[in-house]
Each structure stands twice: as C-alpha cells, then as structure tokens.
Write a structure and sequence with these properties.
This protein is mainly β. It has strands spanning about 5, 10-15, 20-25, 35-40, 45-50, 60, 70-75, 80-85, 90-100, 110-115, 115-120.
Length: about 120
Amino acid sequence: QVQLVESGGGLVQAGGSLRLSCAASGGTFTIYAMGWFRQAPGKEREFVAAISWNGDKTYYGDSVKGRFTTSRDNAKNTVYLQMNSLKFEDTAVYYCAAGLLPGATSGWQYNYWGQGTQVTVSS
C-alpha cells in the first residue's frame, strides 16, 4: 500500500510560480509511474503531467505544456510539479497519483492517490 502526501500549494498571483511536492511511503516508489491531476470546482478531473518510473519520460496536458515541469527524486521518494507562468484557470486542487503504466492520462489507470493540495491563482 502506497501513501502519497502532496504539499506546496497556496495562493499566488497570475504570472507567478509554485512547486508542488508529492512524498511517497509504504511501497517501492521506483516501480511506479507518477501522475499529476487537478480538479476545479464544477469541473471534471484533468490530466496535468506524468513521469516514468526513472524520470526519463515526461508527459503533459495541452493546457500546461511549456509552463509546467514534472520531475522525481527516487532517493527521496518524491515527485515534483514546477508550475510557472500560472494563470487564473490553473486554480484547482492538485493530486498526485501512482500507477504502473507510464504516461497514463486517465485517472482510472492509477492505483494510489494523495489527498490533494489547493492551488489558487489570483488574477
């Protein structure tokens, strides 16, 4: 059983940056591909980014390409989401997830989820 805990969310002005972290415990972190999703009020969950088990491949949703970067540090059992040039429409609860399929973009393809961290971008 893998436990995931996100951190790093908060309030930021449009154009600013935030870095989210997702710390994993309770399992073998290195066998899992990791993903980031977000959900805004009244909207469906949206794929944001994913990274392969060793970090050599990354994948991004169209709305964040060129602005967000995901990375991982397997020695620390942590995955990161660097968010730059934030926009008002990036406001959402951000979740990290662990699964066995690299590059998966659907939530059902992930086995474990964190509790989420709120990101609010003021315009």
